[in-house]
## 1
Amino acid sequence: MADRHGDVADRQIRQRHGLDLAVCLAVDIGQIDGAERVGHGGVLPVCCAQSSVCTGAGNRAGGWGPCTGFIDRRRSCRLGSLAFIEDVAMLRRLLTIGFLAAAPALGLATAATAAERPAVIARDGSAVTFPEATLAALDLAILQGADSLRLDVYQTLDGVLVIRTARDLAATTNAASVLARPVGVKGEPPVAGFPVDLVPYSSYAQLTARQIVAGRDLRFDDMFPAPILEDAFALIARRQIDSRRTIGLLIVLHDTQVHAARGRPMEPRLIASMQRYGLAGAPQIMIGASEPTSLQQLAGPGNPRVFVLGPSTARPADSAVTRNSATFGDYQAPAGLRAIRGFADAVLVDFPDVQGYYADGAAMPPSTIVADARAAGLGLYVGGFADADDPLKPRREAIDSYARVFALGVDGIVTDEPARAVAARRHGR
């Protein structure tokens, strides 16, 4: 039954976006640094087959090169130092006959490491390698050992839940070159850019993803479609079978007040989708939002709820509805954390809120928020490790920063370079 479920999951992904998932596994182990992020260290686990040919354009002979062509899922092709293995069952057989011993050096997860804590939550997948919020980035993060995936979820004009990292589709996809300018909604501010909530799913389905952070690899731009939420659910179902471990999710809803005002609330759609995939009430599936009213509506399924804090001087988008003037900074104080316990089980804060840095780069003493959250009965997760001004920290600095936060006793971290976070957790034991 489990294998049949996994086959259905793969078919659902292919039917929605015409995808075939392929596992691209580098065998040139001599080039791989296990502490580096997989992908730029020699391992490229995922490609999407959209053609029956494997062109290999752009690969460097004899060295690491990305799969810039497409994979014929009926055969394997070797490009430079990469061997592309498109059959997941074949990967399992390789691991069984002895490749498993090399998995830690490759940065790949094994069943034995699945339950380690604190948790490593990959924000929109391994986004330092592939365009964020693509199935390729999500799949790579799973193979790198991430315990959970953070999915930033928006809703299209006609009510389809999709995975993106910004409301403006032009920031993360080819929307500006393939879509007509969206028409605004009467009574709302003028349209700027290509807001996902003003684009119907029929238009969204035409989009391909692009790298959003300056300084990262752009060679995968326009290779992968922009997925919907249920694509990720199907992928998780398949990979849990393949890896024989539980894979969690942190599903973060965005712009909930926009859709509530239009009469298309996101929360019932999310609950219905989770119920279809058997995820309602699952403890490893967390639901996040930055609006208390949204989290209150999500209490029904019984999944852990996470209050996602924004900039300290800003207020939740539903503050006018709740008549609550508290800022996100107020919620970080002990009294604010106790108030959060009334509608959430955990809180997600940024790294500087836990431990800041002086101008010379030296670390400040940790704040009291970890202890304060514990006293309030809340779990605590930490994100905000990279941004547009810091596309990728130097390797040692990144691992050290993750290790420091782990040592503070947090429940987990959220990062777009999960391989390094997994390495930091492993080295800290």
## 2
Amino acid sequence: MLAAANLPVIWNLSLYGSSSTFQLLNTKHQKAYALHCMRSDGHEEFENSQENLGLSSVTKEPKQKDIWNFFREAQQNILFINKQRLAAVEELEKLKKEKDELLERINQLEEETQIVIKKADKSSVLWELLLRIDSMVINGLIGIDEAYTMRKFVKEHQSNISVFPLDVLQQGDAEILAALRRFPNKTKWNGFHVIHICTEMAPLVSVGPLASYIRQLSCLLQGEGYLVEVILPKYSTLDMDEIEGLQEIEADAYSYYNGQLHANRIWNGVVSGIGVTLIQPVYYSSMFNRDEVYGYPDDFDRFAYFSRASLDYIAKSGKQPDVLHIHNWQTAIVGPLFWDVFVNQGLEGTRILLTCQEFDSKGLVPPEKLELCGLDSAALHRLDRLQDNTKPHVVNILKGGIVYSNKVIIMSEGRTLHRSIPGLESTLAIHKDKLFFAPFGMDNSMEKDLCCDVHVSAYTSIKNL
């Protein structure tokens, strides 16, 4: 018993039923028992670890597939973005090249047009100044005598006018007047001042050959040193885009018609380097607010109003042209009006030139119609004046233009008149010393030179009258 007490013991208590058994195990038995227990616990842990590993593998497998899908999609997106970037760079290079080509073309066009601009600058500035002087007179800023001096001053500086300060042209009339007075005197102008009173001018309004004739002749004469301007009705069908610097004179310009004074709106601008004035009736606004230029029962009334309004405007603005150039029957009434009404209104040095392009329409009207524009019908209804040669009860407006003009240019196919002109043969025979003949067209340089020479000869002969 004492020996047994010195041994390490483990009490093993097992319960079976109602009895108990006690076993005493030595160290060897203890080790074996512990090993058994460890193996038993390790087996369970191993099985648990195997089960956990299988579950993890099942869970991670779809995650790995998603990652690879995301990776492949990212690669595809990167490739697409790279392709888009390369395409954008290529397009940018293309646009840059096109831009450089466009800039180069713009520079070329600017260089090409610079010569034209330099040529146009003189006439544009010249006419801007002359038309602003008209505005000064109508608005009462300067008198007629001073206006005459200022116009002469501008004309004498024509070759040097392009150096006039352009910023001043954007200011008021007073500033322009002050700048003109300070402008240096360097060159002299020796040309004629010609005013066309007409019903057509290309490219503003064109019906027949008169339109291109006015434009080409004006440009030719201005190239020869003449100062040329044009007065037109302000038709509602005018191509206003062709007018440079269009502006309305802010003052009423009155003209006589049918026993009363009527207001007109006056517009100024430049067309092909030629100064253009447009007259727009206020009360009789419907006269030129129509679809067609000609062909109405009141054509005489319309163009008689315009002719009288043109002369009233010229007289009021203080213009003193060397020649009033009128055309066909539509403005032929200017001849009688000038000599009977306007010659003593500061226009003593002005002369009348009539151009006849066609004789089919002569403007046959009752004599009393002349009173609409202020003429004495009884004094003019005579055979040596406006009475028609074959129909004595009417007056012939074209005949009146021939009788009252200082010179007459017949547009013909040759140097002599090869066609008959019913009703006007005797009138032309009486006034044969007035006649000049010019080519009907100006389609080539020879015809242009001939036409220009004829008109220069006509103007020169008028100057010597």
